[in-house]
């Protein structure tokens, strides 16, 4: 059903990666993504990257099947990138038909691009699989904390994110209800072309927006009644704390970067 | 002075037309005097538009009196600097359980109030444990609120208020959106909190069955208090209650009708057992 959709798709387990501080995981993912773009088409560095990713996936205890499933959503993007790379890279021509030509460099580029995208999605999905949405927003708030000095409302942003996460299933359920209520009165959401379908969604959006605003108003009142007054002077029930495991992870991350750079230097192709 | 005291409390809503010009004034509260003692369980009854929700919002300083004064735990609600003390003293539970739960995990939601008050972390955990236990929701602490029933969500909301250690809890029609089971669950929970933790309870409702356990019943109509007394005293006056468009519990009404038609049944029957006793006595 519609309410089963969850954002982030947390995969509950009690692994080493699950227990890491969200900041470690966010920074780790960020570094991993950057590391993918440090080198161009060389084969050997990818061995290091794949090795590292395999290690992390193993430690996270998330089944590899589950992670591969997440790749489905980017197939379109992947095909797009491959087609463009194959046909639009100039170089040594292998095959030509009119203006379409396939070059050796194009094939190479396309292959590496596909590999890079796959690794990127797998790497970042490890973060969402092992971190609850609440932890993620907490981690982001902590990481962005220095931005407070230049007047970025860091606490407010993370509060908004966590409230949004709380209300996604509620609003989905509500959409479902409104849809059924309108179908009972003869509304048709399924037939017709794309434009007709989009038009039939208008009477759905209006009541949904009205109710979302009413909910927001109620929630704001409830929050104020519970003494919410922004981030100032607030304590945390679950404060983030780095543990030994986090320092070990940072060390591994640095080791990974160093070995990647070294391999890149010595790699012949 | 009681924990909640109102003197000549007036609240007016200004009705505006589409251009924003004032076209009239609605007096939601009209010269209201109120005195509630610590540890009492007070039920406020009234049909829609009687001003009972407006009164509730005053107790939490969400609305300000137009005239008159309201003291909560000794603080005048008009004093801006005490607004957080007032909100901590008088916790508020609202009608819709979904719209007052902030977090995606039960225990984190209960911890939200203490977090706002700046309570140290270990103390927050203690309070969360205590309040979840008090409402009987301890085993659901790591669940998502979306998976709970309406009655359970409302109990979580009550726990969230309890964790702030209030002197008084104001419940604004907490059972209006619940099924009969959930309704009983919530009423049982607040009755227990009142008896065991000695929290003052102010229950606003229009379900007659829920006020039987109260120490005191207040009936409101058009912004005024029109009747006051123990549930028994109130429910003996069936005719007058009907005048304010309120129904008495079924048993009470049956006993009242029997008495009117000549049977020697005592006044103010509140439960089935009492009526059975009276009838077998005859």
Tell me what the structure shows.
The complex is a heterodimer of chains A (269) and B (282). Chain A is mainly alpha-helical and 269 residues long. Chain A has 2 domains: 2-131 and 240-266, no CATH class; 146-225, no CATH class. Helices cover 66% and strands 3% of the residues of chain A. Chain A is built from 10 helices and 2 strands. Chain A has a two-stranded antiparallel sheet with strand order 1-2. In chain A, strand 1 and strand 2 (100-103) form a beta hairpin. In chain A, helix 2 packs parallel to helix 5, helix 2 (43-60) runs antiparallel to helix 10 and helix 7 crosses helix 9. With 282 residues, chain B is of the alpha/beta class. Chain B folds into 2 domains: 4-239, P-loop containing nucleotide triphosphate hydrolases (Rossmann fold), CATH 3.40.50; 249-282, no CATH class. Chain B is 36% helix and 24% strand. Chain B has helices at 52-59, 83-89, 106-110, 112-117, 121-134, 150-162, 180-196, 231-235, 238-243, 250-260, 272-281; strands at 4-16, 22-36, 41-45, 67-72, 75-76, 90-93, 168-172, 200-205, 216-221, 224-229. In chain B, strands 6-7-8-3-9-10 form a 6-stranded mixed sheet, with helices on both faces. A 4-stranded antiparallel sheet of chain B has the order 2-1-4-5, with helices on one face. In chain B, strand 7, helix 7 (180-196) and strand 8 form a beta-alpha-beta unit. The longest helix of chain B has 17 residues, at 180-196. Classes of the chains: A mainly alpha (269), B alpha/beta (282). Chain A binds chain B through residues 3, 132-134, 162-163, 165-166, 169-170, 215, 218-219, 221-229, 233-239, and chain B through 60, 62, 84, 87-88, 91-92, 94, 96, 98-105, 107-108, 111-121, 124-125, 128, 145-146, 160-161, 164.
